[in-house]
Structures are given as structure tokens and as C-alpha cells.
UniProtKB/TrEMBL annotation:
Taxonomic lineage: Bacteria, Pseudomonadati, Pseudomonadota, Alphaproteobacteria, Rhodospirillales
Native source organism of the sequence: Phaeospirillum tilakii
Domain Hemerythrin-like span(s) in chain numbering: 4-124
Tagged with keyword Iron: yes
SUPFAM superfamilies: Hemerythrin-like (SSF47188)
Protein name: Bacteriohemerythrin
Amino acid sequence: MKVGIEAVDEDHRVLFAIIDEIDALLGRDGPIAPAALADILARLGNYVRIHFQREEEIQSEVGYPGLEENRRHHGELARTLEAFDGRVRLDLDQGADARATAATMRSFLAVWITEHIVKVDRKMRGRILPWSG
Ligand SMILES: [Fe+2]
Ligand SMILES: [Fe+2]
């Protein structure tokens, strides 16, 4: 699933590592504390912003034609993360078990990020020099 630009591939590894933290929560017995999920979501949101910015800058610098498509997809995920944030806040307010929210987030994010890398990010493979960025 490599794109061939080290900074981008490293970012993708970090994003999957954060999603794995949701997996780890789901793998434990008992209820999931909403604060634990909120912490993961906050770090994911930050890293997603950093990564999207980095990717779009690299593409913009070389005049990559797929930049707008990539940017549009990125906007979609940013809006979805806001929706997840609302769900987690609700769990926090109600002191609820965040397991259902965590499970929804986990399956959505793993699929979205994998598909985005394969269908959108990978199109820049071989079209942007590996030392760009
Ligand atoms: Fe992207
Ligand atoms: Fe990416």
C-alpha cells in the first residue's frame, strides 16, 4: 500500500497505529471509557490534519493534477471526524459505555483510510519524486 514518498508512507503508518489503539480498547473486556476514546480521537484528528496538509503541500509544489480530488476526499474525512467527535462527547456527557462508538469508528476509519490510500493517494506513486517534501 506504499505511495513511495517516505514522509507520506510514514504518516500513513502513524495513522494506522492510532487506529490500532481503538482495536486495543475493543479487545479488552468491560465497558470502554469515553475519555479514553476521546483521547485517541483527538490525537487522530491532529495527526490527520498534519498529514493532509503535508500531502497537499507536496502535491501543490509539483503541480500534481490529482490535488483537488485528494483535497475533496480529505474534507470528507475531516467532516466525519467532527461527527465522531459529537458522538464521543455525547458518550462523555452521559457517562456511557463508548464501545458502540469505538466499534463504529474503528470499522469506518480502517476502511476509509485504506480505500483512500489505495484509490487516491497511490495515484501519485511514480508521479512525484520520492525526495519531495
Ligand atoms: Fe490523501
Ligand atoms: Fe494520505
